[in-house]
Amino acid sequence: MSTIAHEKYEAVIGLEVHAQLLTESKAFAPVSTEFGGAPNTQVTPLCLGHPGTLPVLNENLVRYTIRMGLATDCKIAEKSIFARKNYFYPDLPKGYQISQYETPICYDGSIHIEMEDYDKTIGLTRIHMEEDAGKSIHDQDPTDTLVDLNRAGVPLIEIVSEPDIRTPQEAYAYLIKIKQIVQYLEICDGNMEEGSLRCDANVSVRLRGQEKFGTRTELKNMNSFRNVERAIQFEIERQIELIESGGEVVQQTLLWDPNKLETRQMRTKEEAHDYRYFPEPDIPPVIVGEEMLDEVRSELPEMPDVRLERFINELKLNEEDARTLTENRQLADYYEGVLQHLDDPKAVANLVMTEVLRVLNEESIDIRQFPIGTERLAELIALKKDDKINSSAMQQIFNHMLKNGDSAMDLAEEMNLLQVSDTGFIEPIIDDVIEQNPDEVKRFQDGKKQLIGFFIGQVMQRSKGKANPQQVREIITKKLN
Amino acid sequence: MAVTNEDVKYVANLARLQLSDEEAEQLKSDMNQILEYMETLGELDTSDVEPLEHVTEISGQFRKDETKQPLSHEDALKNAPDADSDYFRVPRVIE
């Protein structure tokens, strides 16, 4: 396939993202949403679709959705209603999903993404509230499907974008941005691999300059951010090749196969969809008054874009560092927590971005599980800043702090790493080093000045890291000239 | 627009109902009568009337985000036509 043919076309992509909300209880029933419970132990008669049960709307489902709406510049509907989406599937025992149809609670928003060479705003058509289905397990029993209804009724929001996305890379950036926003808002943990964030993509291609959309296909089953990017890339190429070879794109749902890295047609025994939506009679209209809006607005945290700007402008960090530190809210909170105890943004940023992030990666843990608290870390950096320890000592102490709760100062003393600036301690060591290395001394005096590093290294080694390298350099230079 | 036999079959299939020919015929006639009645209502000008979604005037009834005791696992599975010790068991739904 030549790139020339590819360049004749552009893709039109819209994403539907489902985010599972971090409420304590389900959307319409007072039972836990916690993940990982034994099958069918977090259910009520409502979750099982028993007759005579009535849904009662969880206040936080509404509040969390409004948070998302406000954070993405949506309009918030003063009145919206729920609707029944009717279909039969065993993980949906009521025979309908409670969702929103004609009147979503949030609409007309936008999300800003930054690409390498340009910025772009992606429109949001709507964000609506709905409930999750249970879990069907097809591969554990040789003949039947098994159903766990713990997830049935867990609250979701569906975020629907305008068809504004043009490349798989933009789709990736858009998703990462949604993940960052929901994490900042603390309404969803944003984990695609575990299914708390899910994404379907509508993809079509058209000749550049053409206004009319091509026939689209819907992609499902992309369970990681990279898979979304890959699947869309694959589908764009498939459609272009199909059209170029005289074929026609058929509107259909395709499943991404993450092992074969290709899309294939979805085959189920489900019939063609005709959901026959109608207003949910059991739930009164959702009215969002000014008072509630103000409350939710006041709960909003500083959003990532604003925080990024502040880190660059007020803390004087470079853009790359500021971006890394604000990528997730907890890390940014931790960083600023350290600054509360030590006002040195650059030094703190350095240690957090090298050592702290290294440990988080190696141990695959979250900053919230990181063993060194902000005050202890600040103390360690302060020791270095005040020249009480050198860089290598800072690293050694840091590694020990991971394992025990002692303060940096105690460890520095215990490990004998405090720098000694007392010339009475350092001078004899320097004299020994000079005396025992006559060749190097001669070469140094003959002009091989880079040997200063060798002498400093020797002194540092013999002082077991306690000498202040700056001071050592000064004394040696004086003595050898 | 009269309801046809095909319409009746389509709707019955969506509702997972199996109808005999006589039942289908009867339902077709019922549905046509209902639609005719609706035509009568359609004579009224409702362009200025908001759609009525709910007959009660209750709104904004929220529940606090709190959990209560769930149904016991045994009770949850008790009425299932088929189940194992953990799961509901249903005929296979994918090929």
Structure write-up:
The complex is a heterodimer of chains A (481) and B (95). By secondary structure, chain A is an alpha+beta fold. Chain A has helices spanning 3-7, 59-71, 168-185, 225-244, 290-299, 304-313, 319-326, 329-341, 345-363, 374-385, 391-403, 408-414, 423-436, 438-445, 452-462, 469-480; strands spanning 9-20, 75-76, 79-80, 83-86, 96-99, 106-114, 119-131, 135-137, 144-148, 155-161, 197-207, 217-220, 253-257, 262-265, 278-279, 286-287. Chain A has 3 domains: 3-292, no CATH class; 302-414, no CATH class; 423-480, Orthogonal Bundle (Arc Repressor Mutant, subunit A), CATH 1.10.10. In chain A, the strands form 4 sheets. In chain A, strands 2-6-7-10-1-11-12-13-14 form a 9-stranded mixed sheet. Chain A has a 3-stranded antiparallel sheet with strand order 5-4-15, with no helix packed on it. The longest helix of chain A is centred in the middle third of the chain and has 20 residues, at 225-244. By secondary structure, chain B is mainly alpha-helical. Helix content of chain B is 40%, strand content 4%. Chain B contains 3 helices and 1 strand; from the N terminus they run αααβ. The relative contact order of chain B is 0.08. Chain A binds chain B through residues 23-25, 30-32, 38-45, 48, 50, 56-60, 62, 79, 81, 86, 88-90, 136-138, 141, 143-149, 267-271, 274, 276, 279, 281, 284-287, 289, and chain B through 13-14, 16, 53-54, 56, 58-68, 70-71, 73, 76-77, 79, 82, 84, 86-95. Strand 9 of chain A pairs antiparallel with strand 1 (88-91) of chain B.
